[in-house]
Amino acid sequence: MRPSGRRPDELRPVTLERGVARYAEGSCLVSFGNTKVLCTASLEERGPPWLRGSGRGWVTAEYAMLPRATHERTRREVTSGRPSGRTQEIQRLIGRSLRAVVNLAALGERQVTIDCDVLQADGGTRTASITGAWIALHECFAWMRERSIISVDPMKDHVAAISCGIHAGTPVLDLDYVEDSAAETDANFVITGSGGIVEVQGTAEGKPFTDDELLALLRLAKAGVSELVAKQKAVLAG
C-alpha cells in the first residue's frame, strides 16, 4: 500500500482551472494533489535578438517557488541575485517541453513567456508546471487568434508530464513528497498527446534500476499522461 493509499497506477486528484489571472494573455491554476502551481502566459511583440529576421517566434519559461510553498520558508532567489541550478534546469525543461509542440514559424517574430509560480509544493512541481503551462499557452494562442494577431494556431499537439518512481520495490505513478523522498528510483516523463516522448529524466537513488523497471515506469507514465491530456481537453471543452 502506498502512503497515500493510492493504487500504483493512480494519479493524485488533478484540477486545471483556466483564466485565473486577469491581466495575462493566458493562465491556468494546476493542482496535483497538494502541489499547486499558477501558470501565466505573457505575449511580447518581439522575439529574442538572436532570432531577429528569421520569421520564427520563441516560447520560453521561468519557474519559481513562493517562500512558504514548503514546510519552512525558502529564501527568494532574487535576493541572492541569480536563480539556483535547480530552478534553471526546471525552467529550461518547461520551455523545451512546450516548444516541442509549437510551430514557431506560425507564431511570427514574437515571444511568449510562461511563468510557473509554485504556490504549494508536495512533489511533482515540474510536471504540474508543464501540464498547466500547456493550458496557459493554448489560452494565449486563442487570445492572439481572436485579435487577428495570428491566423493559424501554432499549437501542434498536447503535452503533459508526470513523475514515476520505484517505491518500496513497486513502480508507482505521480509521487508525492513522502514517496519521492524515499523512492529507490525517481523519474519524470514529458509526453505529447499523440504519445511521443519529449524528455525522460530518471535517477536511481539507491540500487540501479533495470530495463524492465524502466519500461514499467514508461508504461505508467504513458497511461498517466493520457489521463492528463484528457483533463486538458475537458477543461478546454468546458
UniProtKB/TrEMBL annotation:
<dbReference type="InterPro" id="IPR020568">
    <property type="entry name" value="Ribosomal_Su5_D2-typ_SF"/>
</dbReference>
<dbReference type="InterPro" id="IPR018336">
    <property type="entry name" value="RNase_PH_CS"/>
</dbReference>
<keyword id="KW-0808">Transferase</keyword>
<dbReference type="InterPro" id="IPR027408">
    <property type="entry name" value="PNPase/RNase_PH_dom_sf"/>
</dbReference>
<dbReference type="InterPro" id="IPR050080">
    <property type="entry name" value="RNase_PH"/>
</dbReference>
<keyword id="KW-0819">tRNA processing</keyword>
<dbReference type="InterPro" id="IPR015847">
    <property type="entry name" value="ExoRNase_PH_dom2"/>
</dbReference>
<dbReference type="InterPro" id="IPR001247">
    <property type="entry name" value="ExoRNase_PH_dom1"/>
</dbReference>
<feature type="domain" description="Exoribonuclease phosphorolytic">
    <location>
        <begin position="10"/>
        <end position="138"/>
    </location>
</feature>
<dbReference type="GO" id="GO:0031125">
    <property type="term" value="P:rRNA 3'-end processing"/>
</dbReference>
<comment type="function">
    <text>Phosphorolytic 3'-5' exoribonuclease that plays an important role in tRNA 3'-end maturation. Removes nucleotide residues following the 3'-CCA terminus of tRNAs; can also add nucleotides to the ends of RNA molecules by using nucleoside diphosphates as substrates, but this may not be physiologically important. Probably plays a role in initiation of 16S rRNA degradation (leading to ribosome degradation) during starvation.</text>
</comment>
<dbReference type="Pfam" id="PF01138">
    <property type="entry name" value="RNase_PH"/>
</dbReference>
<dbReference type="GO" id="GO:0000175">
    <property type="term" value="F:3'-5'-RNA exonuclease activity"/>
</dbReference>
<dbReference type="GO" id="GO:0009022">
    <property type="term" value="F:tRNA nucleotidyltransferase activity"/>
</dbReference>
<dbReference type="GO" id="GO:0008033">
    <property type="term" value="P:tRNA processing"/>
</dbReference>
<dbReference type="InterPro" id="IPR002381">
    <property type="entry name" value="RNase_PH_bac-type"/>
</dbReference>
<feature type="binding site">
    <location>
        <position position="86"/>
    </location>
    <ligand>
        <name>phosphate</name>
    </ligand>
</feature>
<comment type="similarity">
    <text>Belongs to the RNase PH family.</text>
</comment>
<comment type="subunit">
    <text>Homohexameric ring arranged as a trimer of dimers.</text>
</comment>
<keyword id="KW-0694">RNA-binding</keyword>
<feature type="binding site">
    <location>
        <begin position="124"/>
        <end position="126"/>
    </location>
    <ligand>
        <name>phosphate</name>
    </ligand>
</feature>
<keyword id="KW-0548">Nucleotidyltransferase</keyword>
<dbReference type="InterPro" id="IPR036345">
    <property type="entry name" value="ExoRNase_PH_dom2_sf"/>
</dbReference>
<protein>
    <recommendedName>
        <fullName>Ribonuclease PH</fullName>
        <ecNumber>2.7.7.56</ecNumber>
    </recommendedName>
</protein>
<keyword id="KW-0698">rRNA processing</keyword>
<dbReference type="Pfam" id="PF03725">
    <property type="entry name" value="RNase_PH_C"/>
</dbReference>
<dbReference type="GO" id="GO:0000049">
    <property type="term" value="F:tRNA binding"/>
</dbReference>
<feature type="domain" description="Exoribonuclease phosphorolytic">
    <location>
        <begin position="159"/>
        <end position="223"/>
    </location>
</feature>
<keyword id="KW-0820">tRNA-binding</keyword>
<dbReference type="GO" id="GO:0016075">
    <property type="term" value="P:rRNA catabolic process"/>
</dbReference>
